């Protein structure tokens, strides 16, 4: 660094001494011969001038250096340096005397001196700024203490003028003028978008700044103007003007940007979306992206154009399958911006054959046909007497158990269709079973006759007895239980009949004897004894015959006699055998 052969002044950072800000100025003396590089300093002097800052309109205390005041102080004088550089006496106070005030009109009635020799200045103004000097005269010397006065004032609020109501895309527009009034020093203004600082880029952002000083008050007003070229995404953005000052916190003022632009796209919406079925109300809604958004549209409904103003929707009530097809909407003033959508109205029709009440003879066939007309895939379910069936009913050979109410349900989304028929199986009754068993107490016989047929067959018995129970007639089936007490061997017949015919079956019933368990054992023992006796007699007879044939002493007469005896024995055996069977 090259230095000329004259003093160079360097202003350092300020510091505070005894509560007063001190600004030091260093004067550096450089030897004449060393001009290429900075030499070691041969000598230097330091002159520090303290300064006092006070707020505009308030009372400011300007201190006098206490180190230059001694017991030998004879007089203290406060002076003020005029704008032309000449000094102006303010207050003179001699020892043991009252202060003598001689001030210019600008400071009249606003200055005074307190006990510590400080100067009080009330109602501080920017015109008061300057250098004040405290001169102390002692018996031995005269000292002067200079203090620089600076008056501060924060801006009187922040306001944005000339706000743009709306901005067009790509068009450079003045967004607003931000003003911070009457401050000292002048306020610094910054623009932000959504809390992000904006910088002048010379393209889409232009920021100009201006500071004006009031000649009367010397207060500064800062003005910042923002010109901005908006984009579509800037719609709704918040632009903020922020003012910073050395006194107090930053203050802000904001505006919300409204970006206007012509529509670029159009969309057609259909509600309900899916599925749309016959009987629904269908609403067409046209949506455009302009700002402000268009409010009037043309709806093109299968060859018909309907103009809708001050709204963007059109409703078709109670739609049918004929409403299926392509729909369009467009801007009234720009047919080129158009949107379309294909609409399908779902429908469902069914035809069940047979239907209603169907009467069929048992053993015959019945064909069931379900025809379905629908716009899309569907589901089918069957029930018989409100119970779900696994499969569609088929009747190649009708049985009485097939009787009942059959219902089918076909579903397509929210659409549902039902159809039903009642199958009544008719025919002559047939007895499927005739059985007997003893009652629990052993006092009577219970006969059970089961039959199928329709209409309900009548059940009759060929003997007198007592009807115990008759089951409910269901699916062409009836069961009747009949009690009898036979006194002899009986042939009991069950007969069932209706208008189509009849059927009968018989069963033998033996008389029922009441014997005790001991009597039963006795009878069994007697029977067994007779059987054993018969066997023994037969064996003895056989041995007798064998010996008779071997003896030669027997005569013909004896042989004849033996024959008669043998005949009698055989009759006896046969009689015993019959008793044993009984």
UniProtKB/TrEMBL annotation:
SMART domains: IG (SM00409), IGc2 (SM00408). One of its GO terms (cellular component) is membrane. Its main location: membrane. Keywords: Disulfide bond, Glycoprotein, Immunoglobulin domain, Membrane, Transmembrane, Transmembrane helix. It comes from the Eukaryota. It is found in: Membrane. This is Activated leukocyte cell adhesion molecule b. It comes from Oryzias latipes (Japanese rice fish). The lineage of its organism: Eukaryota, Metazoa, Chordata, Craniata, Vertebrata.
């Amino acid at each position: 660094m090259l230095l000329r052969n004259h003093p160079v002044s360097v202003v350092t950072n300020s510091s505070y001494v005894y509560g007063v800000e001190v600004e030091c100025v260093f004067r550096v003396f450089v030897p004449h011969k060393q001009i290429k590089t900075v030499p070691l300093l041969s000598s230097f002097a330091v002159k520090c001038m303290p300064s006092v800052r006070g707020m505009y309109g308030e009372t400011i205390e300007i201190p006098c250096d206490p180190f230059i005041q001694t017991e030998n102080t004879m007089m203290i004088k406060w002076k003020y340096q005029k704008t032309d550089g000449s000094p102006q006496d303010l207050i003179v106070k001699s020892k043991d005397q009252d202060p003598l005030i001689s001030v210019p009109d600008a400071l009249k009635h606003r200055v005074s001196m307190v006990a510590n020799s400080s100067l009080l200045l009330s109602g501080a103004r920017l015109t008061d700024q300057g250098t004040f000097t405290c001169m102390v005269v002692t018996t031995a010397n005269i000292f002067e203490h200079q203090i620089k006065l600076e008056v501060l004032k924060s801006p009187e609020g922040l306001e944005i003028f000339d706000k743009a109501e709306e901005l067009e895309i790509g068009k450079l527009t003045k967004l607003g003028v931000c003003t911070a009034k009457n401050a000292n020093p002048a306020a610094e203004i910054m623009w932000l978008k959504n809390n992000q600082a904006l910088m002048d880029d010379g393209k889409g952002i232009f920021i100009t700044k201006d500071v004006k000083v009031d000649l009367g008050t010397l207060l500064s007003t800062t003005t910042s103007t923002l010109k901005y070229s908006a984009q579509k995404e800037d719609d709704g953005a918040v632009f903020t003007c922020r003012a910073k000052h050395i006194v107090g916190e930053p203050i802000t003022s904001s505006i919300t940007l409204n970006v206007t632009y012509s529509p670029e796209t159009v969309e057609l919406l259909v509600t309900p979306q899916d599925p749309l079925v016959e009987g629904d109300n269908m609403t067409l809604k046209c949506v455009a992206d302009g700002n402000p958004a268009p409010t009037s549209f043309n709806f093109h409904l299968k060859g018909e154009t309907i103009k809708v103003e001050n709204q963007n929707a059109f409703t078709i009530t109670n739609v049918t399958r004929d409403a299926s097809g392509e729909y369009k909407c467009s801007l009234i003033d720009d047919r080129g911006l158009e949107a379309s959508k294909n609409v399908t109205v779902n429908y469902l029709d069914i035809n069940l054959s047979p239907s209603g009440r169907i009467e069929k003879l048992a053993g015959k066939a019945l064909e069931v046909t379900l025809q379905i007309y629908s716009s899309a895939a569907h589901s089918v379910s069957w029930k018989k007497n409100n119970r779900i069936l696994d499969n569609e009913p088929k009747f190649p050979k009708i049985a009485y158990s097939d009787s009942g109410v059959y219902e089918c349900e076909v579903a397509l989304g929210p659409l549902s269709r039902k159809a039903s028929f009642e199958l009544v199986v008719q025919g002559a009754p047939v007895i499927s079973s005739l059985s007997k068993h003893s009652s629990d107490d052993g006092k009577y016989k219970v006969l059970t006759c089961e039959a199928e047929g329709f209409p309900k067959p009548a059940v009759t018995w060929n003997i007198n007895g007592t009807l115990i129970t008759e089951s409910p007639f269901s699916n062409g089936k009836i069961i009747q239980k009949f009690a009898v007490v036979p006194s002899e061997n009986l042939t009991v017949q069950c007969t069932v009949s209706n208008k189509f015919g009849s059927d009968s079956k018989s069963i033998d019933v033996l008389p029922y004897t009441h014997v005790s368990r001991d009597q039963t054992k006795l009878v069994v023992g007697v029977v067994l004894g007779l059987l054993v006796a018969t066997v023994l007699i037969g064996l003895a007879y056989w041995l007798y015959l064998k010996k008779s044939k071997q003896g030669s002493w027997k005569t013909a007469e004896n042989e004849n006699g033996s024959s008669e005896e043998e005949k009698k024995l055989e009759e006896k055996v046969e009689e015993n055998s019959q008793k044993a069977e009984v």
